[in-house]
Amino acid sequence: MRRTTAVTGVTALGMLMLAACNGGPGATNKAGAGPGQAAASGGTVHVLANADFSHLDPGLGWDGGVNNFYRLIYRGLTTFGAGAGAKGTKVVPDLATDLGTPSDDAKTWTYHLKDGEKFENGAPIDSAAVKFGIERAWDPEMGGSPYPRLLIDAPADYKGPYQSGDLKSIETPDATTVVFHLKKSFPDFASALTMPNFTPFPKGTGAGHAFDTKPIASGPYKVASYVHGASLKLVRNPEWNKSTDSIRAAKPDGFQWTFGLDGATIDERMLAGQGADADAITGTIQAATVSRIQTPQLKARTLTGLTGCTTYLSMNTTRKNLDNLKVRQAIEYAVNKDTTVAALGGSQLAAKATAIQPPTMLGRKEYDPYPYSLDKARQLLAEAGLSSGFSLTLDARPVAAQTAVAVAVQESLKPLGIKVKINNIDTSTFYEVIATPAKQHDMALTGWCPDWASGATFLPPLFDGRTITSTANNNLAQLNDAGVNQQIDKIAAMKDVAAANTAYGDLDQQIMAQAPIVPLDYDKVVTVTGSNIAGAYLSNSYSGGIDLVSVGLKDPGK
Question: In a 10 Å sphere around its CB, with 0-12 CB exposed, 13-18 middle and 19+ buried, how is residue 397 labelled?
């Protein structure tokens, strides 16, 4: 449940990822061709980045870029598969022998660990380590994903292992068995376990954010050196057991990140591809650079695809005029999404949105409830008694791409007599403001990315009216519709995960009938790789960026 970095304060220029999920429909990376060909063993992959990772501690970090990185140094009970397209959204066992055994109406889950796994310091990765690593999610100094706290039963006053000790709802009957007792039935628990703060650690370690500077690795690499904001070097972890890890190819001998680079500088270096930059990867390039990728040599090094994130215009359904469904529907018809896509850099960087969920979601339905029509919009406004229009305030940020989209929305509504005032909010406080109902205005320009390819991580957090809070509120539309709430509960109770995902596709349509948001676009990635890069494809689970567990070099000795 993450807001997109494409429209938050984290710059996407030169970063390794945007924010959440994809590489599926529309991706042009092909295994066996260009950067998708098989990687050889050895060498160092260089990564050019605008910004440092949020946190090296998986108990604190929770965004697409760092989640992708975590898989290089950490393992969990489950993880996402490796491979382009649907392979990358499939949840598979990692340290666990399988995806778990449910009982008690899927309120209890039992997992068995693979034998002989060790941390980089030689300590065993046993059930006690799994239990301790997950208990850290309750520590008051931790953040990260909410899933341990949302799903696992715990006393209201539990404050994690450092302050409160053991959590009884996570049992360890022996060294290789872990039993979870949940608050309620959750058939998709194996997917939740892919989140970073389910990472195991040796008992008693990691207090005081120690892992932010010196993590304890369980994956194929460990941190050799780290200078915050400047550089990060990974080398092989000799304790990693390759025979039990079918996901991480771990072809390079190491990775070297360089942080703090200007986006334009990154683009120039990647296009030139000289020296060590031939062994480099980065994130999505700037819109101004896309037109320069014309030569066959550059096209052969380019990967494109959807990120799995949706940029949208939320409408506060409690505000004057926007509390009228016909007014909201009029705005739906009036917003010209061709202009918002153009504002984001054109069709190579964004696709016009119709449904709430992006095309990468399981069970998602293709439909367009509000095709562009000023005539239909004028008719609805007339029926609402507002033919002469009215004024609205749109909350946005003073960032070039977002400002361009805000202006496109403003121009789209002018023919209806709707005057839109753009209220720029400082990047550092933008989400704090719009997530406080008392401070937000009529509309807000934002975005959302799923944690895994299910409507469970997209629709309920944005539209369940019972979750509206006075601060940290995700339901920006403040939609509180009894029918939507009831359907959310009905789907949550389904034991068949595939059937639930299909039902979320139907719920998407049910929500859009209430017109709480205007889906504007589905974000895309365009990235150029170094000429010596191999094993590169766009991840289905990490913002459409390059999946780090498979990338490597064509010729490590070059």
Answer: buried
What does the mean pLDDT of the chain come to? 92
Distance between CA atoms of residues 410 and 517, nearest Å = 15
What's this model's pTM, rounded to 2 decimal places? Answer: 0.86
284: left (phi over 0), alpha (psi -120 to 50) or beta: beta
Q: Which amino acid is at 173?
A: P
Question: What DSSP character marks residue 484?
Answer: H
Length of the chain: 558
- Do 421 and 413 form a contact (C-beta atoms < 8 A)? no
Please state the rounded mean pLDDT for residues 87-100.
95
pLDDT tens track for 342-362: 999 899 999 999 999 999 999
Task: Give, in degrees to the nearest 5, the angle at Cα 535 between 532 and 538.
Answer: 110
Cβ atoms of residues 69 and 232 within 8 Å? no
Q: How far apart are CA 184 and CA 162, in angstroms?
A: 26
Please list the helix, strand and coil fractions of the chain in percent, rounded to the nearest 5, in that order. Answer: 30, 20, 50
Dihedral (CA of 111, 114, 115, 120) sign: negative
Q: Residue 462: pLDDT above 80? A: yes
